[in-house]
Automatic annotation (TrEMBL):
NCBIfam families according to UniProt: HDIG
Coiled coil: none
Organism from which the protein derives: Paenibacillus woosongensis
Database matches in Pfam families: HD_5
Domain HD-GYP span(s) in chain numbering: 114-309
Name of the protein in question: HD domain-containing protein
Species lineage: Bacteria, Bacillati, Bacillota, Bacilli, Bacillales
InterPro entries noted in UniProt: HD/PDEase_dom (IPR003607), HD_GYP_dom (IPR037522), HDIG_dom (IPR006675)
PROSITE patterns membership: HD_GYP
């Protein structure tokens, strides 16, 4: 099917040989499309290519997979999809030119944030964040949205929340300069790991070139892998040197990374992820941002159905104040206090 290059997705396969306007052969039939191929097509001023029909295996925007029962309006779904597509365009522009048009960020991200402003119960957002097979475009939107919520909970002004969300949205833009072969790998050799870690520097440079009047957004790209105890990268700086925006984005990024997983691989339940992020708040991640995340998410789990590690289905009825990650649950007509029965874990939360 004939497809515009900006609508190509990772995994698409060329149906025919592709030539540029001068008749030069650019890509052969059967090429599996990745970021580098899209960038090459853009550089060659090729607007459309023929690809094989998609069988559903290519990565789609996750918002279209969220059930109607979760209360996502069609307008909000469209906002998610458009914002993801916009980041793909921003990512490819950064890859081909070394910078991007910042107006595209505001044009697509801000309407999504405004649509979320009146959504106080974010369990539906959590469901969205925990979807499998998330690519870098989806991931970037997720980190941007969660950064926005954390900033809101911490009492930042509306304008500051928008800036922090933008920082989260753009935090991984530097990966546009990292080789696709490295980004696709789950285990990296030392030299490959070094190249991957350079995405923080690349991101800083790209954002500074694109948004010249706002250094803080660029700092989030540079610092979102730094730890307060100095054990992070790329500079190994400590708590007092990490910008507050970067601290928030780091928490959001850690949470989103833990709630998503490679294709067909299981990931932890949301409560388990929250506990892991909570533990990182003691020396690694900013404690205030971590506390804001956990204190605002845990109450939303009350009333949710869960599956326990012993195979039982239960409902969360109360969060134990002495152990917030071991709630009281109801199984049929009796209760289990997971703070006492510590061998039992919540393995899945159902969002219906």
């Amino acid at each position: 099917m004939k497809t515009h290059v900006m609508e190509l997705k990772a995994g698409d396969r060329l149906r025919e040989d592709t030539f540029n306007g001068a008749g030069l052969h650019i890509l052969p039939k059967g090429t599996v499309i990745q970021t580098e191929e899209i960038a090459l097509l853009i550089r060659q001023s090729i607007d459309y290519v023929d690809i094989d029909p998609r069988d559903g295996g290519s990565e789609e925007a996750y918002s279209s997979n969220v059930p109607d029962s979760l209360g996502f309006s069609q307008e909000l779904r469209r906002n998610f999809d458009k914002t993801i597509q916009a980041f793909q365009a921003i990512f490819l522009e950064a890859l081909t030119t070394g910078k991007f048009n910042q107006s595209m960020v505001d044009e697509h991200l801000l309407p999504t944030l405004e649509a979320l402003d009146d959504r106080k119960n974010i369990t539906t957002l959590l469901y969205m964040l925990s979807n499998d097979d998330v690519n870098i475009y989806n991931h970037s939107l997720q980190v941007g949205l969660l950064s926005y919520y954390i900033a809101t909970w911490l009492g930042y002004s509306r304008e500051e929340c928008h800036e922090i969300s933008k920082a989260g949205y753009l935090h991984d833009i530097g990966k546009s300069r990292v080789r696709q072969s490295i980004k696709n790998k789950t285990e990296l050799q030392d030299e490959e790991l070094e190249e991957m870690r350079r995405h923080t520097h690349y991101g800083y440079e790209i954002i500074r070139e694109s948004i010249k009047d706002n250094k803080t957004i660029a700092l989030a790209a540079l610092q979102h892998h730094e730890y307060e105890d100095g054990s992070g990268y790329p500079m190994g700086i400590g708590r007092t040197e990490i910008h507050p925006y970067s601290q928030i984005v780091a928490v959001a990024n850690a949470y989103v990374e833990m709630t998503t997983s490679p294709r067909r691989q299981p990931h932890d339940s949301l409560i388990t992820v929250l506990r892991k992020v909570y533990e990182l708040g003691f020396g690694k991640l900013n404690e205030r941002a971590v506390q804001a995340l956990t204190q605002n998410l845990l109450p939303n789990f009350i009333g949710k159905r869960v599956q326990l590690s012993n195979g039982e289905n239960a409902t969360i009825v109360y969060n134990n104040p002495t152990d917030i990650f071991k709630p009281l649950v109801k199984v049929d007509d009796f209760f289990r206090d997971l703070a006492r029965e510590r061998e039992i874990e919540i393995v899945e939360i159902f969002f219906e």
